[in-house]
Amino acid sequence: MQKVRLEWVKNRGLDHIIGRTTSIRASCLLLDHLAGLPSSSPVPARSLARLQKPLGLTVPVLRFLRRHPTLFAEAPHPRFPSLSSFSLTSASHLLLDRLARASEIDSHLRLARLLLLTRSKSLPLASILPLRFDLGLPYNFAASFPASHPDLFAVSNNHISLSTTSRLPEDIAISSLQRRHAEAIDGATYRALSRPPSSSSAPLAFPMRFPRGYGGMKKVKAWMEDFHRLPYISPYDDSSGIDPESDIYEKRNIGLLHELLGLTVHKMVRRNAIRLLREELGLPHKFTRLFTRYPGVFYLSLKCKTTTVVLREVYERGKLVEQHPSWQ
Question: Of 110, 121, 118, whose CA–CA distance to 235 is shortest?
Fold first, then answer.
């Protein structure tokens, strides 16, 4: 399959969404952090300064806290009046309650699917923590999930894995792309839909939303037609027998990244978080090239001084086409 080299094109609309989501993410994680502290006393802002980078903020934490007085109440520290300190407001407690209820909807299934995508069906907790907000996981998921879902998860040596006695839902290992095609074609099973387009079943085509001017290019159309003719390999299927240098394996990787982004609440992930999962997911060392090579599927953003990947198909006119129930 002959590949076409395409230049990166900035998308201001998606960049704006990423900036807004980054702010929401930082607020929610700060709320979790403050709520989890043993003391209810106001917390000095300087003790939170180290969180700036993990939160993905481009401004100091103190400035960010002051921008959100509805959630973070500023007051002098009881022992050191000169220190700017912060505590939770009544509104922040309401938001924490809403987040807690939202995490009970399907976050355990999101984590189970993520583990199913890996080679060992297990991940270090340190690799999942950067994805906690993206997957909608509760603050204490490492302890609460094995306790509330002992038939699904086990934790050992700072790793969380699928339990050896896991009783997974029958349809959990079906990708979002397969589900969509199964719904569109009456009577078609998801296994039948994994066949090449030359069969009697319809091809599993990735939804494409190219940057302006790309979609009409003949060389791009020809390339994508060749790409869609390749058989679709479910990201939940064993790929150990496929040549890592083949076009089929590249399409498998596109499907895996498509599914990974689809598992998240906002359909976006920071590249550094994916890097922590790279080996377990079987991705190539230079996996970022997959995002730039398929700009009709993914948008690679440099907003907020980090690299974020967005699933293009799910956003329209500045909002998610189908929002997660917790954000409606």
Answer: 118
Q: What is the pLDDT of residues 172-224, one digit of tens each?
A: 999 999 888 877 665 544 344 344 333 334 457 888 888 876 756 788 888 88
Q: Has this prediction a pTM greater than 0.70?
A: yes
Task: Tell me the two tokens of residue 82.
Answer: 């000169």
| Residue 82 CA: distances (Å) to CA of 48, 71, 75, 76, 85 | 16, 22, 10, 7, 9
Buried b (16+ CB within 10 A) or exposed e, 34-64: beeeeeeebbbbeebeeebeebbbeeebbeb
Alpha carbon distance 287, 293 (integer Å): 10
Token pair 């377990």 is found at: 280
| pLDDT tens, residue by residue, 299-326 | 999 999 899 999 999 998 888 888 766 5
Sheet-wide strand order for 298-301: 268-270, 308-311, 298-301
pLDDT one-digit tens code per residue, 67-106: 999 999 998 887 888 889 999 999 999 999 988 888 888 8
Q: Which of 66, 90, 67, 73 is nearest to 20 (CA)?
A: 67
Closest CA to 261 of 197, 320, 327: 320
* Sign of CA pseudo-dihedral 21, 25, 26, 30: positive
- Degrees to nearest 5, angle at CA 232 with 229 and 233: 150
Lookup result for tokens 């990708």: 175
**305 CB-contact burial (10 Å; exposed 0-12 / middle 13-18 / buried 19+):** exposed
Which DSSP symbol is given to 321?
S
